[in-house]
Sequence to fold (143 residues):
Amino acid sequence: MTSLLNNSVLSSSVCESARKLALSAVIGSVALIGSTLAQAAQTTIPVDLSRATATKHEIAVLQVLSEVCPPMLNRQQRQNFQKTYNQQLKQMLPSIENPKAAIRYLSTQQDYRTILSSMRNWTLSYSRDENLALCTDLASADF
Fold:
């Protein structure tokens, strides 16, 4: 009986230790994944905009529209808008292999962030209906 009780206490102790170890592993994994994601989000590739066909202001307007428009549009319009957005980015940044990476890089630059903030304020100064009309036009653009 004592041996059974000792085995039961030992099993309980082993289970508790295993649970603590598993919990520690999960917490460590979450911390590692969070750290890795944070580093990946901060990693940007410098971009040469010298051959861009658009100004930083024009790029910022397009970026702001990509933030404002999708929630205002239905599923089909969002898909069309995304195609138009991608085509516009390629036209504005023809020499850049990954225009979306260029936008991420620009967003780390203080001068561009100032322009972007200004364009956000400017876009949001228009009524929802005016922005919706613009977003709808972009979603129905045919390139």
In short: The two ends are 83 Å apart (CA to CA). Confidence is low (pLDDT under 50) at residues 4-43.
